[in-house]
Amino acid sequence: MSNAQPPPNKTWSSSPLVERMILDFTGCSTLQDVTSLDLSKRKISTLDPAVFSKMVGLDSLNLSNNRISGFPINLGLRKLRVLNLHHNHLKSVATLEQFPDLEELNIENNLLSIADHYIAVYMLPKLKILNGKDVDIRETVQNMEDTLMAKVNEVWNENFLAELKEGMTKAEIRTLEESFIEMLNTQIQFGPDALVDFTNYMLTTLAEKHVTQQTSHLRKPLLEQPSIPVPNNKVQILIQDESGHTIQQTLDLGNGTTVASMVLENEEGAIQMEKRQAEEPPESAVLPEAKKAKGDPESASTSVAAPQTVSDPEQTETKTPEAQSKGTRGKKAAASSPAPKKAVKGKKKTEKSNRVQETEEKKDAPQVDGMQEVGVAYEPVHLLRCHSKEDDPNDTATNVWKCAFEPNPEQPGNSTWSVATCGSNIVCVVDCKTGIVLKKYQHNKEKEEFYCIAWTTLEMDVDGKKKATNILAAAGTKGTIKLLHPQQLLCYAEIKMERKSKPINCISFHPSHPTWLICGSEDIVIWDIGIPQGSDFKCKHKKLLNLSAPGRVLGLIAVPSADFLLAGCDNGCYGWNIDTNAFSKREKNHSLEILLPSKARLASAINEDGEDDEEKEGDMIDGLALLKDQLVASKVACDGSIHIWSLKEARSMKKGPVKEVTIKPVYSLEWCDSDSVYLDIGTWPGCGVLVSGDDQGEVWVYDVFKQAELAEAAGEKGPFKPNQLLPWPESKDEDKEEKEEEKSEEKDKEEQEDRIIVNDVSISSDCKYIVSVTNKNLVCVWQKA
Fold first, then answer.
1. Is the peptide bond between 719 and the residue preceding it cis, with omega within 30 degrees of 0?
2. What is the pLDDT of residues 146-161, one digit of tens each?
3. Contact (CB, 8 A) for 168 and 215
4. Superfamily assignment of 325-604+617-690+712-732+754-784 in CATH?
5. What CATH number has the domain spanning 15-136?
6. Whole-prediction pTM
7. Distances in Å between the alpha carbon of 626 and those of 156, 168, 575?
8. Cβ atoms of 404 and 419 closer than 8 Å
9. How many angstroms separate the Cα of 67 from the Cα of each of 99, 136, 155?
10. Where are the domains of the chain?
11. What is the pLDDT of residues 238-249, one digit of tens each?
């Protein structure tokens, strides 16, 4: 019942009495049913957690004109959105942090300073209305945080970094943290005197997060686990939390080996992960035959990583991203999807028995297109959940959209083993070798959702010397670009579109001009982001060129040798000649339209009653990658194929003013028959391996260069099957196998709707690691066996 008010002059001391009275004057049958409660003018000084923690649905609470000075820390009320504390005895807003969903707050006429108002805005990321007025200081708070974060890094690196050592205890880390905070509050003077308390609060918060991130991998394990024998085709994962509680799980990958490290979040932060290979069983023991990786003729070698201590940096509030929605097959349905990056799920066209990975089909397939001879086995080694909303370790609804390996600044053209991922309002950098989340950036605006990321390497002045430094760009729903300095944990610049903001679907840096950032939305804009200067990383950015795109842009490729730009759009593939020496201020139209083979185009060609030209729509190009100079890989959505073709040949075919060019692929690769869209393809230019995910959690791996060699020798033209099909690592519970077989068709349909969709896949330059990101808030790291 809304705005319920109790009878006057009642005493709030006995839990049963309080509960009975609240139920009486609200008319609700249980406390769980109470959504709005008015306790104004009741001379209340405190609230009883035993009662209020049961009000899990409470949305609005009026406590105005009382004697409240704070709240018990275990009050609950996680869904509280509106809180009125007008005219109370508050001296601090610290206890309000337990209400992360607050959108409206009134703290007027309390014993608070202006600094407390800033603290409230900073600690409550969803707060929109404060004291009856719109919150208009959010941007000021964010700018202040960015500036102070740079100073925090500077003090840490100069005074405390050298004190880190392996096996530090909690007490040692806490002592280090206290010294760090004390030095920050002493040395850093920032902002007006009226905001000193806010500055110190922000410094303390940033320092605590920074220490957690810097020391998580150094913490001493709490408990040594005994070695437990497991069958040799399984691996036991021991997950230990701060309380010493251990969860044991054996995972069978279905490829002759097992998952290495599974990373989950918990409230305490650090989780001790240990993987143990079992002792060899007796010769007389009969073990089940290990499954082989699909596309690999031999069982993968059992490679066991060392135990890992994995920590996920502390997070703040995150936005609940849009869930992937179901849609119907067809270009029109897909192109009209309201959300730029919503994955459209549809029914699979074929059963698994008809797919490329089935054993019988592999046996019958010729060596040249099965590629078993040159296939490389990969095994999953880390499974991470690091983009959770509200720090929820069980969050399986957040989409992780993109992943990109970090370039090696010391070896141009190569990557490191670190990979960036983006999903929700979070960007992470993960070490593929250890599975540790090295860096995490979280946008302060709840409605931001990052769809795309891109790396570049800039020559920056560091201590008077030029040093190659990696910069990471991220963009998404808000239509703005964030420029991140991962080493400094700093968002040092934001680029806003000049026109009305539209979601940015893809970004890419120009290979020959590292400061040129190409952004794809409903049009294409090329920005010069400049080079950060000084300790505050100030930089100037400017728009170089605006290109008119015929459709919504989903993928971008810059080809420096040809001064050419390719874009995959929701209605076709288009190209622009880019004169890098003379940019025009006028919006430029495309100079080339590339018509790729597709089932829809073939059906249109043989349909005598086809649509008029004005009503035809081009194919959605949801995958675009540059294998090497002017050798392009592209994927038409829902078409079941990936095509490899020559841009040089396509451009040479253009005659006169006609823009359309129909190309014949050099090679075609067999892909899954699926209705899902926005499933990108990935590679590292020059490595020769192409990767792509599907809507069954699988990763398709193609060794294109070696495949081409064998195809040429054998006179084959394809389409070629993948070298390897990596199945999603799922737990194997033998006790549940029979129950799984007895599931009803209705249950199977529910599971089909809940399937894992791989949104994007990336591969390192040396092909040692493959990373896939999914619609279930999971990042999977695969390692070459």
1. yes
2. 889 989 998 999 899 8
3. yes
4. YVTN repeat-like/Quinoprotein amine dehydrogenase (2.130.10.10)
5. 3.80.10.10
6. 0.56
7. 41, 46, 14
8. yes
9. 20, 29, 42
10. 15-136, 139-218, 325-604+617-690+712-732+754-784
11. 333 333 333 334
